[in-house]
User: Fold these one by one.
Assistant:
Number 1:
Amino acid sequence: MPPDQPLVTLQREGARITARASGAAASRAPDSDPEHERGYGHLTSPLRQRGLVCTVEYGLSDYFVHASLPDGSDVIISPPQEPSSEHPPGYPESWLVTRHRSDEPAAYEVIYDSEPDGPHAQHRGDVTRLLAAVDTRLDQLGVPPRPEPKRFAHDVAADAVLHRTGFVPAVEFGGEHYHRLPSAMTDPEEQRLVVTRAFDMLRADGFDVSCDPDLLEHDMPPPWIPETSLGDRLGFLAKHIQASTHTRDMVANLSEVTAPGDGVLQRVVEILDTTAEWWEGFGEPADHRYAQRLRTIAESLDSYAIELRAIRGDLADRHAVHPRKNRVRENQVAASTPAPPRVRAALAPSPTAAQRCASPALPATAAGVRPVPPARPSSAPGR
């Protein structure tokens, strides 16, 4: 495994099963927070990254998070206090987020309420929804945003594997990316199957993977993993286009994308239309909106496919060698082909020039002359 390849940790966090890459703040498990965070490090960390001073304090029956805002007001993020409830540290069944200021002008507002009778009750203990609501209000109050986290190629590669195995991407802890199992996937056996598949595919891709053995299906045979994904095979088209020196070669590769009927773009349009029809079968109002959105995207993509097809035709009419690509190709060929004997003789230095190069250097005592230090062998340190 490459030395900078991250460790991917598959673990249970409260009621969720998540996948996190090391190096991100999100990779730290809730129970590994410092003692004074009381299991709420996943709330205090993103708030501190926005420059807020946070503390974890004890209320009527449970701990809560207190954050001071630049305008003198305070935000309280609290689990249910009355009546108290049993829950994993930092993961209650619901949340209440309020903002208040006792000094003039006094203020009091409810930012988020997922308690049973609250406006966000459907989200219950979902921390992602909670942080999204808090971030939206902080943006409105002019609190500086947190720095954009840097994404590395190996993180994107892990994202691709987890995406294919059925995990859902999410953003938490100050913008760091992680993945989780679908919220409605509650069957333990089904969870083990998905986690095991992700574990095997990550290992096959060269990642170091940490996973609780209880989350794995040990009797499950290793999955068949293709050498290259469909996306990678399409990526070869881009490489072939980049290497093309004539429009006919470039057009041949682009045609795989733009071909009517069975081209890549037309197949994507077909997939979106089929997905819309399938999704609409659930029958709920939100499902109809999703289906309509998918059809709108498919229509836009179909119109772009027509335009790209026309552009491809214009390029085909050029039927010419690319001037820059051709020069690069000629230089590469020339560099790899031995020169004829006459040319080699013409390029060879004259005997007198060779003698001048071999003549002794001035003595080191000559004015203004420093002896040239001997060249270090290639194995010398610093070479």
Number 2:
Amino acid sequence: MLNYPSRLSLAHLPTPLTRLERFSVPSSDTEIWIKHDEITGTEVSGNKIRKMEFCLAEARDQGCNTVITCGGIQSNHCRATAVLGARLGIKVHLLLRGEKPGVPEGNLLMDYLAGAEITFIPTEKWYGHADYAAELQADYVKKGDKALFIPVGASDEIGLWGYIAACEELRSDFERLKLTPDYIVTATGSGGTQGGLIVGAQIYDLKTKVKAFNVSDDAKYFDQKIREDVSLWKQRYNVDFDDSGLEIDTIEGYLGSGYGVAGQAVFELIAELARNEGIFLDPVYTGKAFHGMVSELAKGHAGQLSGAKQVVFIHTGGLFGVFPQQEGFRFD
């Protein structure tokens, strides 16, 4: 029996698991199922809220009245943290990578509306953001406050619990729907969702493999990051878990020009899925991962999802990130 640490009830759970009925992959008879974590809430929709249930519980347990976190200007994680902070009465200070835009859009607009304190750090100085966060923590102490630092994407040994718990939910989904998926597919940007799914699938004996498509960095990075997070998780929570055989499978080749930059094929696929199923992906995370999954399925036995009869795609959210990139869509 797994003993979970403190947890706040913030997400609308369980999220639905539904099959795509009208969208299909050419030359493939694979059933595609969507785990709808884009509707874990409204303004705080997406995968990050699962992690934040544990991270914000940790902040509460430590007596913090402030959280500091970081990410890109259109970070889903930062937006979720800002909104949750407003709901819980916790001050949120965001460190965002890049220059302050003239007009805030998408997630950034919501950060401002939710009352977050925002510091922009130029890209060339981003390597020092953790040091800056530590300085901020010291400054808050001088003011009589206490701040918890949550890393990018809430991807650490605390946030790992979010998708470990999600696997318990998936086990119930599979039993109820009589599913035996060959693969669980997700986008990976900071490694926390991927890591939690890998650990949770092993703990809850899901008998399926986790495949991730990187939207930043490379497979080597995620292998190292996840192993470090799992090691820290075992130590911090004194968990008896065999991590010697972790299968960390990150499929490369669909990153495109870089993080947050999608090719035309991704935009076209986002529009196709919306048109056929009423499901909206984003060009930063889910659109790239879904494009990668569809491309690999279309390769048949030559692809990295070879032989799949059923796959479950984790829809990690990101809707608000569509609007700042609307120029990528073409409507003739």
Number 3:
Amino acid sequence: MADRVAMYLQDAHPLQDAIGYVQYAEKRGFEAVWQAESRLVRDAIVPMAAFAATTSRIKIGSGVINNWTRNAAVIAATFLTLDDLAQDRIILGIGAWWDPLAAKVGIKRDKPLLAMRETVETVRALLARQRVTFHGEFVNITDIELDVVHGRKEARNVPIYIGATGPQMMALTGEIADGVVLNYLVSPRYNLGAIEQLEQGARKAGRSVDEIDRPQLVVCSVDHDRTKALDGARKLVTQYLGQQPHIMKASGVSQELLDEIGQVLTWPATEEQIEEAMRLVPDDVVQMITASGTPEEVRRKVREYVEYGATCPILYPLGPDVHLMIDTFRDGYSN
């Protein structure tokens, strides 16, 4: 396949079905699957292990875990273990999490940039099989290593990608990470500012932005019935308008619409609130921040994200026919 393409899974499907979708995507030439871990629904590590054990080629990334609820040593040990299941196919995607969820479980996300830097630095060193002592503000490790007694003792090839949204985290990603997981529910033009920030960070580290992989989550609602496809994406768009207004604002969604949605939705939102708020979201907002419509329309929209700097679309399938989405991109998006 000429074009790189990957798939994103959250918690919408039973795990056995998700395994089948990953196997189907692997057969159709998809490069990777990224498993979400966002709300308190589905942990990323268990599905990643299932995908690793039931495939042979496709890469498997966390999209993304957070750097607050597992300490750096546990993160490193976890991803070493995943690499034992699928050598050289595991990607560590990590992000700074979000409020109000973090606050509701007792996490105070002070100094998120420093916390991320300390975590990435120490996890990378541990996966390189170094003995590490690090006393920072968030990570405190004294004379430890990944204590492999049985099995492979060499350094592990587990690249670290940061799920960055804000400009400062994006610049940090350009400085310290192997890649960035660009967010979904943003317009393609959002990438221009993101890449500028990546370049700033890359220059600080003495490297080019071209050395930083830039896969991007893209909500993909595909149906031969265009109206059905748009309606399929509207619910998710509505939820994110309420839950992640900073992301929506960065893509050009009006403050007026964000305020209207905010007056309707609480967190966690009820189904009734979501249904009411959906009526406020016009088609052009859905189309601005998702790839929704017929197969031809979604391929065209995905091309826009790539034209604006994404290196590999990570397609988040909405709707019941996941196979249709996979088949839509089995030959890439340039055709």
Number 4:
Amino acid sequence: MMGDTELTGVPSRAGRTIRSYALRSGRMSPAQRRAYETLFPRYGIPFGSMVDFPAVFGNAHPVTVEIGFGMGGATVEIAEQNPGMNYLGLEVHRPGIGRLLWEIERRRLSNIRIIEHDAVEALEQMTGDGFAAAFHVFFPDPWPKKRHHKRRLIKRPFTDLLARKLRPGGSLYMVTDWEDYACRSLEELDATPGLINAYEGFAPPRQWRPPTAFERKGLASRREIRELYFVKPEAPVN
């Protein structure tokens, strides 16, 4: 759920890194700042070496990665409903991180951890191939102007990286309220080796996904919500 920040530097086909986010300084409330300062050492994972997820979470439960959780509203709802899953949030927007940390503590959740860093670098340098059970990408910045389309998150070669990090049987679930972005993402994911569309075209809504603030804004603007759900087969596809 990305708003005025996007989370990842998307590698271009020419090898250059094009940032899909414009990091802006957002005002942190006193509660968000206090939560960030006191709770990030407990629930945050510093950027750096490879992550030992069983050690970090204290169990070997499957790991779902949410790229760009915004203020974390959907993140905590999903994690609270699924105590047998672990959730890794990747975000650079510090007020949103503070808000999520506050919710984690308030709800006494133990199955969420956060990396405050660029997603491409975090995934490439801190995770092994096949570690993730799922990726969630809810309402990424659509970069609607044509000259900014190169900044969009869901496209190759970034989707190749996600496919590599997924375990067999894992899934990639994206939601957007921008028709052009949805159609382009569908094309990019269809062209990504190792991923197969679980449906013909767009996916039906997932009833377990909580609505987000960006979703409500999209609906208020009369934009249709479109969902994409791709899976990594258990066995390689010939």
